[in-house]
Design brief:
196 residues, mainly beta, Porin, twelve-stranded antiparallel barrel, 40% strand
Amino acid sequence: MASLQLPPVPTPVAIVDQFIAQQSEVLVLKEKVLSLSGDSFDVRLVSGEPIFRIKGKPLSISGRKSVFDMAGNHLFDIVKEHLHLHSTYAIQALDGSKLLEVKSSFSLIGSNATATFTSPSTDGIVSLNMKGNWRSRKASIVDDATGAVVAQIDRKRFNARQIFFHQQTYAVMVAPGVDLALIAALCVCFDEKNND
């Protein structure tokens, strides 16, 4: 996956402007084996440089996960919304306002979800479509307005840790001009939806 290069997106796709990729980047999300909540992730660049920490809240009804940068700044939270027909997740700002909503849709042969938000870069509504294959090992995230692939997710095949502890590892190619924090959050939503 490291040799794959995605072309730059025509306009920035971001919820946190400070983490916009300047070149194609590969993120590696690894679920923590010894997490008390079972839903914490380390997020690194493929070079090994840590970039985000995602901490799950133990005993949270909404499955709340908090996303932090490496300086310890709390960026936003990921929560599961209840009382919806299909799995729905929200990315919430620290004041509790909704930055983004991810809604899954029915599919017989894969995982489908749509993320909708207002971009601070363009003040326009952005709709990203996530589609995965039958076994949900891979997914593409596409900007509905431009058709540009903003990221590609590749879940590594089962290994002993995944079989016994249900931890996942994702490699994610992110296009230049796309927010790395946004894509990390969408991967966590993808993981949660596939675990439902």
